[in-house]
Amino acid sequence: MNEFELTILGCGSARPSVRHLPSAQVLSYRGKLFMIDCGEGAQREFFRYGFNLNRVGHIFISHLHGDHCYGLIGFISTLILQGKTGELTIHAHNDLEKLLAPSLEYFCRSEVFKVIFSPLPVKGGIIYEDKSLQVTAFPLKHRVPSYGFRFDEKEKLPHIDKSAAEYYQIPLKELQAIKEGADYITPEGETIPNKKLVLPPSPSQSYAYCSDTIYTPRIVPFVKGVTVLYHESTYTEEYSEQAKDRYHSTAAQAADIARQAEVGTLILGHYSSRYKDEAQFLNEARPIFPNTLLSNEGMKFRF
Amino acid sequence: MNEFELTILGCGSARPSVRHLPSAQVLSYRGKLFMIDCGEGAQREFFRYGFNLNRVGHIFISHLHGDHCYGLIGFISTLILQGKTGELTIHAHNDLEKLLAPSLEYFCRSEVFKVIFSPLPVKGGIIYEDKSLQVTAFPLKHRVPSYGFRFDEKEKLPHIDKSAAEYYQIPLKELQAIKEGADYITPEGETIPNKKLVLPPSPSQSYAYCSDTIYTPRIVPFVKGVTVLYHESTYTEEYSEQAKDRYHSTAAQAADIARQAEVGTLILGHYSSRYKDEAQFLNEARPIFPNTLLSNEGMKFRF
């Protein structure tokens, strides 16, 4: 059931802090690893938590501010040093390639490993798809073009109704076809319609990541109903003016997005380095959206 | 007396390790901060130890491998974010400017702060000088052009011989001129020669940093007699073949350089991430050069 595992590598903001690292996350899904943002130091955390470098094929960069992408060059260098082969696709703003390509060419030559840049569509859209997962980018509102990412499990196959399967004595080899929609024909030639043999599939889970953004209800439809929403909350209410000036959100604003979007769980992060602890973020978010959690480096969320 | 203070920000090598950070040091001298190498994460350590960003004016990069320079872009971004004004000179291989300039232009625009690239002279030479300090670059031998740096206090002014000053009743306002070499003329017109009024100056201290290099006695004259030598020791004897193949040194080789150069203290660092602790480095170095210390993140050496 819990096929997503989200690991927080960094949940601080731009100014360095001893308490937090800049933005980076790893989302694991059925053996594949997706990195989301890659702030300075992400490579060290990636290996600290024992992730297998051969399982990471895609990195999603929300926007081109240093605290979200300065870790890329080091991460890629280390992938090569550790012998990774194949491809790594970086989904990011179009400008990233011209910024990173000279350093990749200089520091990261490899005959067996290739970096592919996949520019994010300006208005957002589907940017990744495999047989069980779909990733959509959607626009946020920040000082530079910034994107959120939504990971949706595709609709799953229905479960076999075990009592029906027993009743009709269906051979094992037929079950996959039935899950995929086939009717069952008995040895006597009777057709048992598919709907008599299956039960509804497990619900599909989903995750949305809203990196740097000012509060805007335009985000709501993009994150509607997700199982888990990570939404930046750089400031508490005390600094709401600063949040607006700097195109960031407060904890209460993140909670308001979660409430409107009817998500399952809200995770806060991207804390300003001015805070000595984050208790106040929870105090301000929970009255608006009770199911709110604080992120911290090393935390894992399974859903 | 102890005017140099060396702080180790990172003493690991290229592969990320949870035990160490990549190469970076801060050398403090009379209120000025000199950064030596700037591996990923150096900015966080710089602020962790409370250094004042307005005091750093020069960074010396030994060579263009990522574990010695990937922290530059983040460090500079943060200097700007924190409001640093004036200039920062980066002394490094000529290629660095073309690699870093596009990112500086994109991420680090400032009207009041400027980065200056100062290419290291190919054969080495004096690269920095002020009234009390001189910095010399000298060639090491690695897979890419690599340089060591030597910091020498210039000869200091002599001390006033207090008993002589008292005997001749020299007014306080004359003392600086005497320190600078003047004779003293008494109210009666008698000339007291300078050498009767002064005692030898305190000895000048010095520091040399030998980053990535294969063992080569050609280093010896460049680091001759320094107070403190930091010399890379990526490997222990067990991996001496690998050291040679990768153009690195063992602890014993670093100690041999220190012994030949008759330095005061040897500090080892740039440990391969394969080691779970570094005791064996000391075991192998001290029989050759007893006054050997291990570096570690956060350690400070005063001399």
Structure description:
- The structure is a homodimer of 303-residue chains.
- Chain A has 303 residues and is of the alpha/beta class.
- Helices cover 24% and strands 29% of the residues of chain A.
- The first copy, chain A, has helices at 42-48, 66-69, 72-81, 95-107, 162-167, 175-179, 220-223, 240-245, 251-261, 279-285; strands at 4-10, 24-29, 32-38, 56-60, 86-92, 113-119, 125-129, 133-139, 147-153, 159-160, 184-185, 191-192, 198-199, 206-210, 228-232, 265-269, 292-294, 300-302.
- Chain A has a seven-stranded mixed β-sheet. A seven-stranded mixed β-sheet of chain A has the order 7-8-9-14-15-16-17, covered by helices on one side. A two-stranded antiparallel ribbon of chain A has the order 10-13.
- In chain A, helix 9 (251-261) crosses helix 10 (279-285).
- Chain A is globular, with a radius of gyration of 22 Å.
- In chain A, 42% of the residues are buried.
- The model of chain A has no long low-confidence stretch (mean pLDDT 96).
- Chains A and B meet through helix 1, helix 3 and helix 4 of A and helix 1, helix 3 and helix 4 of B.
What key phrases describe this protein's structure?
homodimer; 303 residues; alpha/beta; 24% helix; globular
